[in-house]
Protein 1
Amino acid sequence: MLKKLVILTAAFLVLGGMSSAFADSWVGTVSDSMCGAKHARAGAEAATCVAKCVAGGSKYVLVSKGKVYQLDPQDKFADFAGKSVKVTGAMSGDSITAESVEAHTRAKKAEKPSGQ
C-alpha cells in the first residue's frame, strides 16, 4: 500500500512539473475588450486608452497576429496596458490562462559592417 502511494505521489509530481514544460507562448499587445485589435501596436496612446477602458469596465485582451484573445487572470496584465508582451500559459478556445507575462522587445537586426 505504501509503495503504491509513493509511486502515485512521484507520478503526480513528475506530471505536474511537465505541465509547465509544455506551456505555449504568445507575443502581442495588451489591449482591452472594447477596443480589441485597434491597439495591435504598442505605444503611449494605446496604453492611455487601454487603461481608461479597463477602468470603465473593459477586460484586458491580447492582440497577436491580428487575433484577439481573452486573458485570465486579469490582474497579471495591469502593468502592461498598451505594451508589447510575451505571455506564457495555456490556451482553450480563444482564451489564454497566463502563467507568466513579461515585457517583450523586438530584437534589433544586426547592422552590416561598413564597407561591405
Note: Strands lie at 24-32, 60-64, 67-72, 84-92, 95-103.
Protein 2
Amino acid sequence: MIHRFLAAKYSAFTHDIWLSTDSEIYRVIAKEYGLEAPFLRPEELSTDHASSSDVVLHAMQFAKERGLEYDLVGLLEPTSPFIKVADIDSAIDELEQDLEAHGVVAVKEQRPATIFVQKDAKYLDEFCSNINEYQRLGRQNFVKEITPSGGFYICRWEKFLTEHTFYGNKTIAYEVDEISGLEIDEPLDWEFAEFIIERKKRYE
C-alpha cells in the first residue's frame, strides 16, 4: 500500500490521493505516512464480491458530495507494489495528448504466450498443434501479446461516471517492465517481491 502511495505522491500532475479501506487500522497506518483516508468503505463494498469499479465510484461520489471536480480518476491496487512514478506520469501525459482515448491501463508482456498454453487435459494435443505450427512458421512470425499488469488504471472522470469501467474501446495500453509489472496474487509472488526489496536495499 505505502509503496503505491509513494509512487503516486511524487507525480508531476496535480492530484489528490485517497486510501479506500474498510479497516480503521489501515486508516491509521495510512495517516502515519501522510496518506489521506477520509472515509471508510461500507460493508457491501468490502466483500470478495465487490468490484473495483464500485469502489472507485464510491470514492467519486464522496468527491462529488464535497464539490470536488477532477479531470481524471485512477486506481492503484496494493497488489502491484513496484510501479514507478515515471510510468504514471508518462501514461497520464500520453492520455492527455490523445483526446479520443478513454483511459490508460498498465500492461506487461504476456508470458507464456497463449501459443504455449492449452486447457487442462491428459494429452497435449492443442499445445502440440500450436508448437508444431509455430516451428513451421519460424520465430519471426511470433506475435507479441500483452495483458493488464495491475500497475495502474486511469480514466477520464466523466467517462468513468457514465461507463463505470477503465476499459473502453480506446483505452491506451501503457507497457511497463517486468518488475514494475509484478502482481502479487500467490504466496510465491510475495516471496519474489520480498527478494526484490532486499536486493534493492543491498545496492542502495
Note: Residues 112-144 form one domain.
Protein 3
Amino acid sequence: MAKKKSNKVPQKYLAGLSKSEKEKRKKEIARNKNKAADDPSAYKFATNKKNGVQRKTVESRYTRRYREMYT
C-alpha cells in the first residue's frame, strides 16, 4: 500500500511573506509539483515576474558547508 503524500507546504518556503503572497506561493508550488525535475518551466515561480530577479531564498546547510569546504 502506497503512502499518501501530504500537500502541506513547509513553513520555510513561506517565511517572511505577506498573507496574499503566501497564498500565491502555495498555488505556484501546487501547480508545479507534478512536473519533472529537469523541466525548466517547473522553476519559473522562483523568479519575480515583474523584473525577472531571482527570489531570495535561504541557503541550505549543505550548500553552505560545500562552499566552506571548496571556496
Note: The helical segments are 19-32, 61-70.
